[in-house]
Design goal:
The protein is built from three helices and two strands; from the N terminus they run H-E-E-H-H. Strand 1 and strand 2 form a beta hairpin. Helix 1 crosses helix 2.
């Protein structure tokens, strides 16, 4: 289930990062960018790659938060231990 959930997060984030990359760099030339008042010392390809991974990370966080908020209360409160492996006095003794 974890792999499936990761794909729900990473694949849409990847696609949106690609769209953002195209939209941003259709308007912005990487050679015109400055950081703290100094021109970037990176090649165009380096700026494209770095920007893509930044966009991917930001959209992955947004997708991850959406997935987290879409979880049911049962999924959030589920005890990870099997019923026979829970310690005495565990409040989740029954039914989960």
């Amino acid at each position: 289930m974890l792999q499936k959930r990761l794909m729900w997060i990473l694949w849409p984030a990847f696609l949106m990062a690609a769209v953002l990359e195209m939209l941003v760099f259709a308007v912005v030339d990487p050679q015109d960018l400055h950081w703290l008042g100094n021109p970037l010392e990176l090649s165009r390809q380096s700026v494209y790659a770095l920007a893509f991974f930044v966009f991917w990370g930001i959209t992955a966080v947004a997708s991850g938060l959406t997935t987290l908020l879409a979880m049911s209360p049962f999924e959030v409160n589920r005890c990870p231990l099997p019923p026979d492996g829970r310690p005495d006095g565990c409040p989740k003794q029954g039914g989960c």
